[in-house]
Amino acid sequence: MEQTEKISGAQVAILLFIFVTSTIIIYVPGFAAKDAQESAWLASSILPFIFGYLTLVVINKLGSYFPKLTIFQYCEVIMGKFLGKGLSIFYIIFLLTMDALVLREFSDFLITTTLPLTPRLALLVSIIALATYGAYKGLEVIVRAVQFILGIYVLGFTIVVLFALTNFEFGRLLPIMEAGLWPIIRGSMVPAAWYGEICILAMLFPFVNKPMELKKEGFISLVAITLFVTVDVVVTLGVLGASETCSHIFPFWAVTRSIDLSEVAQRLESPILVIWISGIMIKATLLSYLIGLGLTQVFGWKKIKVISGICAITELLIADIMLGNAAQISVILRSYWPPFAMVFELVIPTLLLGMARVKQHFKS
Questions:
Q1: How far is residue 7 from each of residues 133, 139, 205, 213, measured CA to CA in Å?
Q2: What domains are there in the chain, each with its CATH number?
Q3: CA quadruple 245, 248, 253, 254: dihedral positive or negative?
Q4: Half-sphere exposure of 156 (CA within 13 A, CB side)
Q5: What burial class does residue 160 get, using C-beta atoms within 10 Å of its C-beta: 0-12 exposed, 13-18 middle, 19+ buried?
Q6: What is the 3-state secondary structure (H, E, C) of 61-91?
Q7: Measured in whole angstroms, how far is the alpha carbon of residue 182 from the centre of its chain?
Q8: pLDDT tens, 26-79?
């Protein structure tokens, strides 16, 4: 967890793409359709992209002021030691909360869809063990794993989409904006919070060998995320319709199960399962790494094995004990997580940027 590791801007773009889309693919069609109905594809693309881009601009500007520091470190530079450490601790809590939700998304999805008899604790222990090991090996190993799975990830999604088009009806996407703009704005809140997860750049900035590339690579990643999510939602609506999309916790999984081309293609759940599990493993591993990085930089702890163990136990306790069932997780993700996440993704970084500019102005 030292800052001697270096990755390229292109690697960061790939990492961000899989980090965001691995969880958004399963839930967002249903969340967006609850408010926006047939216009859910608009709700999950335009406004979330704008939110993600604003987050990218603010984080990139902060990084240009403090190119060798993570947000855990420059909080203290901007706000002073006491307040800065306090805010950094809140960022660690934010990452822990996100990681716990990701772990529960993983276990609840598998229990609901393919492994109903498997104890949730067993699934959580397995993914936390793998994520902890990956985090211990370091950022470069995580990035290499991302590059390895990218082709499988995109290919699996493409296969499912192409075969799902056999059940696609364009009429299910109409009418567009029947209830006006407000339902689209409401429906965009959840996907916007996911797009805003690119705020992890604030913790990765010092590790990038050419930081000046980050704004361009981040923009490319945002465009790719938007296209991916838009296709995901459009296909889900076109196959299931808005009302049925809302009724499923995992609507894209229902799309996959609806594919049946007789002898040509059956049981296409496997591709979506492979891409989802591989993506979620990357996300959980990177979050474990960033939590450990935060603990190292905020508290000065040096024993990485001890830090990894503390992170693993804490993640397991939160994911298994403190969170509810799958339906409650869905409510948390839809109603409570977006405003909480947006504060850490854009509101606080914007305030930090303003304070940094004021300090720089008085110094000059």
A1: 19, 8, 10, 12
A2: 9-363 (1.20.1740.10)
A3: negative
A4: 21
A5: buried
A6: HHHHHCCCCCHHHHHHHHHCHHHHHHHHHHH
A7: 25
A8: 889 999 999 999 999 999 999 999 999 999 999 999 999 999 999 999 999 999
